[in-house]
């Protein structure tokens, strides 16, 4: 799968109210870009603009793929809210994209993806019977099921306990190898572990932050990743 890079150039507003400061961000093809920053600076809005679902916001600028082809149909997005359909089983939620497109769902693949996120025993259950972390893993499974070259993740591991978070980071990094991934996170350790590129979004713009040179996912005790985590914490403390 050939995953393009992205070039994001512009700002966004809701009516006349700015919701994203003017930025220019070049997202490398086939790599993970981790986006951090304080709440309310437009991180989630940026992902929604890229996905083409930010109907409430107006983009003053352009978002383009480096291969020149349209982005439509090439993006999978996991929002902060799992957005599971309460009347469907977890398996049917994972296959929802195929059903909405009128395609024949691949049940075998759905079962395989559910196994990868540790939800095989919950496949026939409804979302309201699962914990918050389990629902988040179901939403992750649905995103992985889409198998798109560009993947947008909005705090995908935030509801998970520490051990499960590490396991899901490793599994997701493996499954999305070669994809172009943009992940919003509030966790500097997560960014230091998963980011090939790290950027900090603020009320005034965006700035690059050096990422470790080693491949992702990095070990939790990787010295360079730990140093990056510390520098990110220090920078975020200063952020407006």
Number of domains: 2
Determine the number of helices (DSSP H or I, runs of at least 4 residues): 8
Tally of extended strands? 9
Instruction: Give a short account of the largest sheet.
Output: 6 strands, mixed
Q: List the uncertain runs.
A: none
End-to-end distance, in Å? Answer: 39 Å
CATH class of the largest domain: Alpha Beta
CATH fold name of the largest domain: Rossmann fold
Could you say which structural class the secondary elements and strand pairing correspond to?
Answer: alpha/beta
Order of helices and strands: EEEHEEHHHHEHEHEEH
Overall, the morphology is globular
Strand order of the largest sheet: 5-6-7-3-8-9
User: Would you tell me the overall average pLDDT?
Assistant: 96
Radius of gyration: 18 Å
> For the record, what is the CATH homologous superfamily label of the largest domain?
P-loop containing nucleotide triphosphate hydrolases
Account of the protein in words:
With 240 residues, this protein is an alpha/beta fold. The chain folds into two domains: 1-74 and 150-157 and 184-240, P-loop containing nucleotide triphosphate hydrolases (Rossmann fold), CATH 3.40.50; 76-147, no CATH class. Helix content is 34%, strand content 23%. It has helices spanning 43-51, 90-94, 96-100, 107-116, 132-146, 162-175, 188-194, 223-238, and strands at residues 6-14, 17-27, 32-36, 58-65, 75-78, 150-154, 180-184, 197-201, 206-209. The strands form two sheets. A six-stranded mixed β-sheet has the order 5-6-7-3-8-9, sandwiched between helices. A three-stranded antiparallel β-sheet has the order 2-1-4, covered by helices on one side. Helix 4 (107-116) packs across helix 5 (132-146) and helix 7 (188-194) packs across helix 8 (223-238). The radius of gyration is 18 Å and the shape is globular. The termini are far apart. The relative contact order is 0.18. The model has no long low-confidence stretch (mean pLDDT 96).
């Amino acid at each position: 799968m050939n995953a393009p890079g992205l070039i994001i150039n512009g700002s966004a507003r809701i009516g006349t109210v700015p919701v994203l400061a003017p930025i220019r961000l070049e997202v490398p093809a086939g790599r993970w870009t981790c986006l951090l920053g304080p709440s309310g600076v437009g991180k989630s809005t940026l992902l929604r603009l890229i996905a083409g679902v930010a109907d409430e916001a107006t983009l003053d600028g352009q978002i383009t793929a480096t291969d020149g082809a349209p982005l439509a149909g090439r993006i999978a997005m996991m929002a902060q809210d799992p957005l599971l359909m309460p009347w469907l089983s977890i398996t049917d939620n994972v296959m929802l994209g195929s059903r909405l497109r009128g395609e024949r769902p691949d049940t075998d693949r759905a079962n395989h993806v559910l196994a990868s996120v540790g939800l095989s025993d919950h496949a026939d259950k409804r979302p309201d019977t699962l914990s918050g972390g389990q629902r988040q893993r179901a939403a992750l499974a649905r995103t992985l099921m889409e198998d798109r070259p560009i993947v947008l993740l909005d705090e995908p591991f935030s509801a998970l306990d520490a051990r499960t978070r590490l396991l899901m980071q490793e599994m997701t990094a493996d499954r999305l190898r070669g994809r172009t991934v943009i992940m919003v996170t509030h966790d500097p350790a997560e960014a230091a572990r998963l980011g090939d590129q790290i950027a900090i979004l603020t009320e005034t713009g965006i700035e690059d932050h050096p990422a470790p040179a080693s491949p992702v996912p990095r070990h939790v005790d990787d010295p360079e990743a730990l140093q990056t985590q510390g520098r990110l914490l220090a920078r975020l403390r200063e952020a407006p």
